[in-house]
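Input sequence (284 aa), recorded before submission:
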Amino acid sequence: MSVLAASHLQKRYGDTVALDGLNMTVEAGQIVGLIGPNGCGKTTALKSFMGLCRVDSGELSLLSQDPFETRAELMRRVTYIADVGTLPRWMRVHDLIDYVSSVNPRFDREAAMQTLAVTQIKQKSRISALSKGMTVQLHLALVLASNAELLVLDEPTLGLDLLYRQRFYDSVLNDYFEQERSIVITTHEVREIENILTHVVFMNRGKAVLSAAMDELPGRFSKVLAQPERLDDIKSLNPLSLRPTLKGIAAIFDGQQANQLTDIGEVTTPNLSELFVAVVGGES
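Predicted structure, token format:
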């Protein structure tokens, strides 16, 4: 079942094109990384998915419903945390947990408490007294305990130290994702999410320039490290990207036969960051 289906989405703000024919799908049980440079339309896409802004044209379905027309109902089944997410600063931590428990029948209080147990957050603390990192930790604890059918996370670990970021992604993979739930996540820390994704979408200039399952990438994309004297051979095969390194020339290819590349240099699979730079850089 398609949890999210977006087809040919268009959205303009005056003369600025935010979405330019965006196509994207999320199936049940997928963890999808939505990755793109600043200003590529990611936030507009997420807001449209959540029914927070109406697209100018195109077709959009969230859990088989129109997210703009049925937003109140869908928010019982979907959780969204924005990169500028805020919490009521006047409340104490335990009061906020009580409130969320009372309004969200899916909320797992015990799960939230277990997540908070590995932080320095005190139950009696006012949210206004928490550091930025602690506020993010509290927000994420509530999100992971929501048991929503779809989690939409926009830069969820912004402001967190490396240790807690790793703990959060471990929780996403081991605790939250143990059931048939789906996640859409955006982040600039691509390497931190690479190992938890099932699918990836690269966005640039309002459209998806690559959409693929993670397990498809090794068979499609190759990275070659060769000596400078092989530059003409590399160029003849039309690489996606080409850059000098301390060890020689690194080139990334889409769809080349392995035997063509092994004659030129050392062949490996590019990591997600390298692939993103190659694909999106070629679109600039």
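Checked by second reader. The chain has a mean pLDDT of 89.
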